[in-house]
Design brief:
single chain; mainly alpha; 2 domains; 334 residues; Methane Monooxygenase Hydroxylase, Chain G, domain 1
Length: 334
């Protein structure tokens, strides 16, 4: 019976996995095979889900409406601003879809600045300058509503379906591009509506952040449960008799075939995704305009969730390390 070499003080970084089974199935198979060896009941099935997304009423920012009087409106006929305001009657911005409102506010700001350049009347210029300053101060709040209230991003951050496969089907590259685009959109001089909607739709259709967090939570709870369960049955694993040595030998095979060869490769990819996405998400957590409840939600999953996952993996590997030492098993040796 053979035992492939293991790195016991850190998670093995292996790329690729068998995507024909889900992480959930691998974890359940791992537990069931160990239970078969020990001839005991496997651990109870777990129900796992992400915490609920914050209520939208908690997230929506109070952005004061900017109104314009009718006689002021008619003085703007020489500017594109006139037609933009006409779209919204006499209110400068108040649209339902967060993405549509953000695009409108960006367009409105550009039109205000252009109108200032095209206007010579002193009183009108003063009014335009006041509006431009107000809208400049508010645009970051409108962006915050785009991030917090968009149904696409809510899905991207809180969807309770789908786990990481550990291959290109997870869509890391496009997800990273989409998140970067949304976080840095204020740096773009020109915002294209089709491009914005494309990135939002990608996160709606392939909610990688939520899949990553749900996968971490799934792995954390199953591995923590497995470790506690193994400790509970460790009396069978003292290696004091021929029978107990045989059980350890069989268990080691299960560990190799399921944890090392199937679970850990997916975990390795999860680590990779975490390190790629985390800097973008951390920028959200420190943004002054985003709501505290939104930032807590992101931080709870992105930072605390990852730390809990790492701890569960380390404790599990430590259990096996101690078992191999106690039973004088040398990884890589027959």
């Amino acid at each position: 019976m053979r035992h492939h070499s293991l790195i016991l003080f850190m998670m093995v970084l292996v790329i690729g996995c068998d995507s024909s089974h889900s992480l959930q199935n691998h974890l359940q198979d791992y537990q069931q095979r160990m239970a078969n060896v020990l001839e005991v009941e496997s651990p109870d099935n777990l129900t796992i889900s992400l915490p609920p997304y914050p209520a939208l009423r908690e997230l929506k920012l109070d952005i004061p409406a900017t109104t314009i009087k009718l006689f002021e409106f008619y003085t703007l006929q020489h500017c594109e601003l006139y037609s933009l305001i006409a779209e919204r009657n006499t209110s400068l911005g108040n649209l339902q879809l967060p993405s549509t409102r953000y695009l409108y506010e960006r367009h409105l700001l550009d039109a205000l600045r252009q109108c200032l350049m095209d206007t010579t009347d002193t009183k009108l210029r003063e009014k335009l300058t006041s509006w431009e300053q107000t809208k400049t101060q508010q645009i970051s709040m409108v962006w915050a509503d785009l991030i917090q209230l968009s149904s696409e991003l809510k899905q991207g951050f809180s969807a309770n379906f789908g786990l990481i496969k550990g291959n290109e089907k997870d869509g890391l590259s496009l997800s990273k591009v989409a998140l970067n685009y949304l976080v840095q959109i204020d740096k773009n001089k020109h915002v294209n509506s089709a491009e914005l909607e494309q990135h939002l739709q990608h996160l709606m259709n392939n909610p990688l952040p939520a899949k990553l967090w749900l996968s971490q939570l799934t792995l954390t709870k199953h591995i923590h449960q497995s470790t506690a369960w193994l400790i509970q049955h460790k009396d069978q694993l003292k290696c004091a008799t021929k029978e107990s040595k045989k059980k350890v030998d069989y268990l080691t095979n299960v560990f190799q075939q399921f944890f090392i060869e199937k679970i850990q490769p997916i975990a390795s990819q999860m680590n990779h995704y975490q390190y790629q996405l985390s800097p973008i998400l951390e920028n959200m957590v420190v943004h002054p305009k985003l709501s505290p409840s939104f930032k807590h939600f992101i931080n709870q999953l992105n930072q605390q969730g990852f730390e809990n996952y790492q701890m569960a993996m380390q404790q599990h590997i430590h259990f096996w390390q101690s078992l191999f030492k106690r039973c004088n098993i040398k990884p890589g040796k027959r």
